[in-house]
Design brief:
The complex is a heterodimer of chains A (about 80) and B (about 210). Chain A contains 2 helices and no strands. Helices cover about 45% and strands about 0% of the residues of chain A. Chain A is mainly alpha-helical. With about 210 residues, chain B is an alpha+beta fold. In chain B, strand 2 and strand 3 form a beta hairpin. The chains are: A mainly alpha (about 80), B alpha+beta (about 210). Chains A and B meet through helix 2 of A and strand 6 and helix 6 of B.
Chain lengths: ~80, ~210
Amino acid sequence: MNAKTGLCLLGLVGLLSACGEKPQVMGTRSDASPYSGPTGTAASYSAAGWKAGDKTSWEQSLRARAQYGQNDYTRAP
Amino acid sequence: MARMKFICDSERCIECNGCVTACKNEHEVPWGVNRRRVVTLNDGVPGEKSISVACMHCSDAPCMAVCPVNCFYKTDEGVVLHDKDVCIGCGYCSYACPFGAPQFPSQGTFGVRGKMDKCTFCAGGPEANGSQAEFEKYGRNRLAEGKLPACAEMCSTKALLAGDGDVVADIFRNRVIKRNKGAEVWGWGTAYGSKQAGQPAKEGGKS
C-alpha cells in the first residue's frame, strides 16, 4: 500500500513538473506595431496624448517626448 | 519616422549607472544579466570618459546575419528584436555583436533553456503588446505605451539619448555646436579620419 501511494505521489510530482513548461510557438511570428498600443491591463500605463492605432499621432507624441524630455536646451536657453 | 537609435554623450555621462538600474528594474532582468552597461575608458585618469552601451539596434545587424535559426527580426521603427521561442541559445550572435549586447541568462523565464536576452529598445517581443507573456520573456513594452526606453528617460544628465534617429541626432548636434569644441563622438576620427575629433579645445569652447 505504501509503495503504491509512493508511486502515485511520484507520478503526480512528474505530472505537475511537466505543467511548469511554458508553451512555445514554432516558426517566425509577426509582431504587432507599437502604435497599435498595449493590450489588457497594460493599456492603463499608456502615455497620454496619442491614440492607439493612429501611427501619426504616436510618432508625433514620441518625437515630442524625445525633444522635450531630452533636449534641455529647449527648456533652459 | 526615422530609425530608433541610442546616442550616448560621453561629455555628459557621469558613470552613475542610473540607466543600468532603470533597465533592470523596468524589465525585472534577472541577477547576472545586464542588458545595458556603463563602460569607462582610462578609469581614474584625468579626462576619463564613460559611455552607456547596450544593443545599438544596428541597421545592418551582424547578429541577424549570423543567426542559424533566423530568430531576429526588425520592426518598421528599426528596432532589432528576437523571438525566444525560436532562439536555440547557440551564442553566435554574441560572437558577432561588436557591443557585447547578447546575454545568456541561466535561470527564470527570461532565460528559458539558456536562450539569448538583449536590449529590446523597450519594445518587447513578438507576443501581444503589453501582455504578461511578453513581459515574462522580454520585459516591458514601453514603445507600445507611447514612451521611450527607460534608460534614456531616467538618465539624470541626459547623456543617453534615445528615440527617432533624426531627433536624437539633432539634439546631439545642437549640444556639440553649443559646446564649440568640434566633433565629440567617440571613434569618429578613427572611423572617418576627421580632424575635428581629438583636436584641442577651441578658444571659448565649453564642456
